[in-house]
Amino acid sequence: MDESKGDLVSSPSSEHILPYAVRQPEIQYAPHGQWATAQHLDRLADDLDRNSIAINTRRSYVSDWSSWLAFCERHRINPLPAEPADVRRYLTQLGAVGGRKGAKVKPRTAQRHLASIAAAHRAAGLEFDTQHPILRRTMNGILRTYGARQEGARALRAEDIAAICQTFSLDLRCVRNKAIILLGFAGGFRRSEIVALNVSDLAFEDKVLRVTLRRSKTDQEGEGRTIVIMPGEKPETCAVAAVLAWLTAAKLEHEGDNAAFRPVSRSGVEYSRLSDKTINRIVQSACRAAHLKESYSAHSLRAGHVTEALAGGADRAAIKRQTGHRSDAMLDRYARETNLAANNSSAALGL
Question: Is residue 1 pLDDT above 50, yes or no?
Answer without folding.
Answer: no
